[in-house]
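>> Question from a student workshop board

For tomorrow's exercise we were told to take the sequence and the ligand below, predict the bound structure, and bring the output to class. My setup keeps failing. Could a helper post the expected result so I can at least see what it should look like? The ligand is flavin mononucleotide.
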Amino acid sequence: MHFDLASMPREQAYKLLVSTVVPRPIALTTTVDKKGRVNAAPFSFFNAVSSDPPVVVLGITAGGPAGEGTKDTARNIREVGEFVVNLVDEALAQRMNICAVDFPPEMGELEAASLESVPSLAVRPPRIAASPVSFECRRLAGLSFGPHSTLEVGRVIHVHIRDDLVDPQKLYVASEKMRLIGRMHGRGWYARTSDLFEMNRLTFAEWQERRG
Ligand SMILES: Cc1cc2nc3c(=O)[nH]c(=O)nc-3n(C[C@H](O)[C@H](O)[C@H](O)COP(=O)(O)O)c2cc1C
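>> Workshop helper replied:
Here is what the output should look like for this input. Compare the format with yours to find the bug.
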């Protein structure tokens, strides 16, 4: 079946995209506004897109039903130029979900979700203490796709990894122990990362050998 996304209402195009590009990693993103007030919100249009330099991206689509308004995260990143991406494990899932509630401006998401924050080393937004991995990022660029949608691009300056997950000598990270979750389809489906399989990458010679 074929769908012409350009001629479809935005909600329908969204539905097709988010139910096919799965699972998506979740960036529980902390930012501060010009007055230093902390904001936290999850984003699953998120990924690491370069390692040299280390770069992550966040896709942020404006709030209202017609895409009007601006999300606090997008405004803060543009105005302050910094953000922290906190990865989300199973233990953080419920509290991450609370951070996506559309609270009135006077309410902070971290307090509402009972999330403790820790000052960052190089950027103003704090990181979330309970997150297994946090990336302190400085804004490199922003790409506007139209009135509703932006891509914020950040260079990772520092990465914090929970002590029990990393061997600092070998730089070995026990990814399978992190129990990160991914966002699936619909408004409320998520995936665990506990069902793994191994497949080594082949050299050309190995591929030829297998073909016989
Ligand atoms: C798991 C999850 C992933 C989300 N991913 C995105 C996303 O990639 N882009 C986006 O614009 N909103 C996304 N949202 C919705 C925002 O988190 C939500 O609109 C939030 O209230 C924005 O907060 P802010 O205005 O404080 O930035 C997601 C929500 C959840 C629960």
